[in-house]
Amino acid sequence: MDILEKIGTALYDGEEEEVVEYVHKALDEGIEPQDILNNGLVAGMNVVGDDFKAGEIYLPDVISCAEAMKSGVRELKPALAAANQESVGTVVIGTVEGDVHDIGKNLVAVMLEGAGFTVHDIGVDLAPEVFVDSIDEYHPDIIGLSALLSTTMPALQRTIEAVVEAGKRDQVKIIVGGAPVNQDFADRIGADGYSGDAISAANLAKRLVQ
Ligand code: B1M
Fold first, then answer.
1. Which of 210, 89, 95 is nearest to 145 (CA)?
2. What is the 106 CA–ligand 1 centroid distance (Å)?
3. Which domains does the chain have, with CATH numbers?
């Protein structure tokens, strides 16, 4: 098993310390940080997602995998930042009001950072005004809104409306995502883009700042 597979397996097993150890080992072996992210950590997380959907693993497993993912990314961040010295743009990302799910949003943030964006993750359960205020605070090119509950989908719309009402809609692109969201809904609420997973969210963001 090569070192990237070892990272994926340790992540799947929720073995935080092993993930950290293997990430360092991979860096020592001269593997590109982006490669470690995509083919080690994210590859492992994709298997977690698939097995969770198939009912082969359960919520506590997903949570320990997510913790292992966070630790791995934390160790990788300095190397990722060094490899992408010029930021390609700034993104503010958060989960909308009433919703505390953050595992997917965190993954999107990681992929955006991996793609060279400066990312300000402002948290979960955020009122529309918090996103509006973030425009003056961080001057983002893009705001990313995540919602995981069908009951919090309307908060995506309310957040976009608040940006419009504040007269700031032309200052930012707004992208949306999360399990219950789809392209049709994104179009209806006036978002600039939708993506169904973290990797395509990073690609979408890159297209929007070109
Ligand atoms: Co909750 N939960 N949960 N939950 N939870 C779901 C979402 C649910 C589908 C489970 C179910 O019933 N089958 C269901 C929602 C049903 C619905 O509304 N359609 C649900 C419910 C009902 C609830 C509660 C109401 C339960 C209760 O208390 N009765 C409650 C609500 C709390 C609240 O938010 N107010 C609740 C609580 C929780 C926990 C706190 C226990 C925990 C969250 C922990 C955390 O996030 N820190 C939790 C979890 C873990 C889940 C499931 C099991 C897993 C979600 C997850 O992390 N997936 C979920 C069931 C499921 O998804 N099958 C469920 C892995 C993650 C990598 O995928 O988040 O989809 P995902 O993110 C993807 C894409 O969606 C996309 O990219 C990500 C990576 O590829 N994406 C974006 C996400 N955001 C994006 C933003 C973008 C672009 C793409 O651009 C900005």
1. 95
2. 12
3. 3-82 (1.10.1240.10), 90-209 (3.40.50.280)
121 vs 203, residue with greater confidence: 121
- For the segment 3-15, the average pLDDT, to the nearest whole number, is 97
Q: What is the pLDDT of residue 112?
A: 87
Place of tokens 């969770």: 52
> In this structure, which residue's CA is closest to atom 8 in ligand 1?
149
Dist. CA 195–CA 186, nearest whole Å: 9
Q: Which of ligand 1's atoms lies nearest the C-alpha of 49?
A: 65
Closest CA to 48 of 58, 33, 34: 58
Sign of CA dihedral 173, 84, 41, 99: negative
Structure-token match 């390609």, residue found: 88
Whether the CB-CB separation of 88 and 115 falls below 8 Å is answered with yes
Q: What does the pLDDT look like over 20-44, one tens digit per residue?
A: 999 999 999 999 998 998 899 989 9
Contact 1, 9 (CB under 8 A): yes
